[in-house]
Amino acid sequence: MTIAKILTIIIGLLLIGFIIWWFFGKHKEAVGNSTVVNDLQNATIVVKGGYSPSTVVLKKGIPAEVNFDMQDSTACLSHVVFEQLGVNEDLTKQKITSVKIPTDKAGTYNFACGMDMFHGKVIVK
Ligand SMILES: [Cu+2]
Fold first, then answer.
1. Ligand 1 center to residue 29 CA distance, Å?
2. pLDDT digits (tens, 9 = 90+) for 47-58
3. Cα(11) to centroid of ligand 1, in Å?
């Protein structure tokens, strides 16, 4: 075997390993918390090539708003959809779009971009 062949095999194995890690590995997800001011809790998600953080934890029983801070100019992320809440907001109209989240009971609300490509969730507990 030539050096080139050995190198090709090594690179190939590394790529396969990377693909397996990418799809099946447990990625550490950034989790954001809310801040409570005057009995209203707020959490901010920056929209820029995805959602950061993609998971936000809210406290049960305190009225809550999740603020989407729009810093992306692609059509992909221009809308945010909370299917369970019937919410479909255009984020391009203003810099920050607030979405009210019901906190009367514990639960998870998933959200996604308008094309269902980027995902995130809001957890009430
Ligand atoms: Cu999209």
1. 19
2. 999 999 999 999
3. 32
